[in-house]
Amino acid sequence: MRLGLALGYWGRGPSLGHVPLAQEAERLGYDSVWTAESWGSDAFTPLTWIAAHTSRIRLGTAVAQMAARSPVTTAMHALTLDHLSGGRMMLGLGLSGPQVVEGWYGRPFPASPLTATREYVDVLRQVLRREAPVELAGRFHSHPYRGPDATGLGKPLKPITHPLRPDLPVLLGAEGPKNVAQTTRIADGWLPLYWSPTRPEVYGPALGDLPEGFLVAPMAQVRVCDDVAEGLLPVKTMLGFYIGGMGHAARNFHADLMARMGYEAEARRIQELFLSGRREEAVLAVPDAFADEISLVGPRERIAERLESWRKGPVTDLLALAPDPHTLRVLAELNSR
């Protein structure tokens, strides 16, 4: 099982510690470093900055949001950074949900998310292969554009720049069983959310027969500390926000996933508290048991014991949300045993 460093996205401003953490991860032998985006900082610019300050570690987005860019624009970002970094780029994508897609990006949330994702990846692959001009008569992504307001002058094109690698890895963030199953067919890897090594069945039967070389790369908060309850508070804070506020009360994919993992009543209670403005109560309502099973928190010996269960399943890459160099170092030592 390889290790990656997940840096997430910025909060109020730039996270000055990200480059030093990425450099330390590279020194410790971590395989990859990942950036993200929500509705603030973008995923590609910080990753480019990190690329300029490292030399070996692979670079991934976990995730870049599909609604933020057309598939050809995303392909342009990926092939450009792949060239600049010497072939270190991995493209992780996510569809997000209606609240963000329509509220932030000002675009309709696709009526068929699976079809929209499949078309997006199809266009990306065409750009990266550069075998012919990009053409797709898609429901959501049409190249050239042939909508009712089209001029009719659109011309199929292929990229001027020759991609460094036609097989640049494409990974997808997927939560529902049907989406996970499609991911194993059309992508090179999967970025699970809230991975529990004891509950792989939650994601459906697709994990039983994965293609050779397919990446399974969940993110997990990792923290070496003496007090487990205190160490779980950042995990619960994240869960309170995602379960409670990252989506509408009637349509929140993160809350639905928590429910499928056996915490349906708790998920609905967190939503209720968060959406009524009682955010601190929402965080405290997150069960310690749930926060604990999707993270690696506690003393070194406890993390070592729990790490074994992560290595026994289909996980190929553990993307650690690790807040400090000490935690990075301990995780690297434990994983090399």
Automatic annotation (TrEMBL):
Residues 19-316 form the Luciferase-like domain. The keyword Methyltransferase does not apply. The keyword Oxidoreductase applies. GO terms for molecular function: oxidoreductase activity, acting on paired donors, with incorporation or reduction of molecular oxygen. Pfam families: Bac_luciferase. Gene3D superfamilies: Luciferase-like domain. InterPro entries: F420-G6PD/mer (IPR050564), F420_OxRdatse_Rv3520c_pred (IPR019951), Luciferase-like_dom (IPR011251), Luciferase-like_sf (IPR036661). Keywords: Oxidoreductase. This is F420-dependent oxidoreductase-like protein.
